[in-house]
Amino acid sequence: MRVKRGVTSHAKHNKIRKATKGMTHSRRRSVRMGKQGVIKAMQYAYRDRRNHKRTFRALWNARINAAARENGTTYSVLINGLKKANISLDRKILAELAVNEPKTFTSIVKATKI
Fold first, then answer.
1. I need a surface site. Which of 4, 24, 26, 60 has the fewest CB within 10 A?
2. What is the pLDDT of residue 24?
3. How many domains is the chain partitioned into structurally?
4. 3-state SS string over 50-99?
5. What is the per-residue pLDDT for 82?
6. What is the pTM of this model?
7. Is residue 2 assigned to a domain?
8. Residue 42 buriedness (CB in 10 A; 0-12 / 13-18 / 19+)
9. Domain annotation covers residue 100
10. What's the rounded mean pLDDT across residues 68-92?
11. Is position 1 within any domain?
């Protein structure tokens, strides 16, 4: 009986084609180029999962600094005051308060000046 081959190869190719769904031109059509595109996309995804955290921390710092300056202090003085007053709020929460609850943020700034 004749043995037909290529089942695993076709499965691999289909896996690549499924992964290149949003890509265009030869990366979508060619398996070889598609494999390169998928590998590069996964590298970018890995890198950017880390950069995402960095970007948001910078955004939070900018928001905290802007709100702190409205209350007559600076970012570094505020963070130092928080540490001395044993107020443990992370930057994400501080930025959220600065944007959505300015009165609460003002009371936190006053608590750090004591």
1. 4
2. 96
3. 1
4. HHHHHHHHHHHHHHHHHHHHHCCCCHHHHHHHHHHCCCCCCHHHHHHHHH
5. 97
6. 0.78
7. no
8. exposed
9. yes
10. 97
11. no
